[in-house]
Amino acid sequence: MKYKKTPGSIVFDVVNTTLLIALAVVTLYPYLYVISASLSDPVELYRSSKFILLPKGFNLLSYKIVFKNPMLFQAYFNTITYVVLGTAINMIMNIFSAYTLSKKFLPGSKVIMKLIVFTMFFSGGMIPTFILVFKLGMIDTLWAMVLPNAVSAMNIIIMRTFFMGIDPAVEESASIDGANDITILFRIVLPLATPVIAVITLFYAVRHWNSFFDALLYLRSRTKSPLQLVLRDILISNDKSMTTGIYDNAQAVSENVKYALIVVSTLPILFLYPYLQKYFVKGIMVGSIK
To answer: Are residues 88 and 140 in the same domain?
Structure first.
């Protein structure tokens, strides 16, 4: 059945569509600007207006400078290792902790949850954490990048709330059929919790991908440096030692390299996000509201 739109509904649709288009433009333009700027000729970009939609004189100089660094590909490998291993540890600890604490019959579950929430407001701080990592012999090792932040209190709370929202009758039925707790978790609960698992996995993966300060604190060998630390070194060396061998305006080249660094460091996450986007809103809303 077709309904005839009233003048008020037509005005609402027009205004709503206009606002959504404006929001999309405001959201996408920074990405378009950075990509266009990174592909532009440094001098032309430096002399042009700040508003650009397409590259100003196509040039790959900035990417040549970035990829010329011999440590870049090693840093990519290190970062991927930290992301994969760290996220796997995060999710294992998060899932088992949240599932256990979601059971109301667990003795002391309320006390444990209060202690977990307490850590969100009060922590040991940077220096005590560094001393602990040092005493455990993890300085300049892979484990220093993945174990100190192996679990997040907020993510435990989100996933626990999601698990508590699953109908207990589903687990009871599986238990009557002879399934044990591990089987129920992996065959019943986790498939139902796909949205919140996908969202929290993205949270942990992005955190490991952007890990910069942990590397400064715990790593000493350049061969173990993550991508963000190597990109920082490229940026610093570019600012300090950029010569005028190709362009007269070294500052223009330096600015151009900064845009290329942004693209190199963010593109992998941008490619990953669309595959998890359909779970994002559902996972957050269901996982955080009881």
So the answer is: yes
Could you read off the pLDDT of 93-132 as tens digits, one per residue?
A: 999 999 989 888 888 888 888 888 888 888 778 888 899 9
Q: Which residues pair with 58 in a beta bridge?
A: 40
Same domain, yes or no, for 90 and 192? Answer: yes
Global pTM reads 0.78
Residues of the chain above pLDDT 90, percent: 14
Can you name the residues that pair with 166 across neighbouring β-strands?
Answer: none
Distances 195 to 80, 129, 287 between C-alpha atoms, Å: 23, 32, 9
Q: What is the pLDDT of residues 138-193, one digit of tens each?
A: 999 999 999 988 888 899 998 998 888 888 888 888 888 888 888 888 888 888 88
Q: Say whether both 203 and 187 belong to one domain.
A: yes
Domain boundaries, position 265: 7-68+242-288
- Output the CA–CA distances (angstroms, integers) from residue 144 to 22, 59, 72, in the order listed: 44, 40, 21
> How far is the C-alpha of 185 from the C-alpha of 89, rounded, in Å?
17
DSSP state of 189: I
Q: Quick one: which of 6, 150, 171, 30 has its CA closest to 91?
A: 150
Q: d(Cα 2, Cα 4) in Å, to the nearest integer?
A: 7
CA distance 65 to 52: 23
CA 13 to chain centre: 34
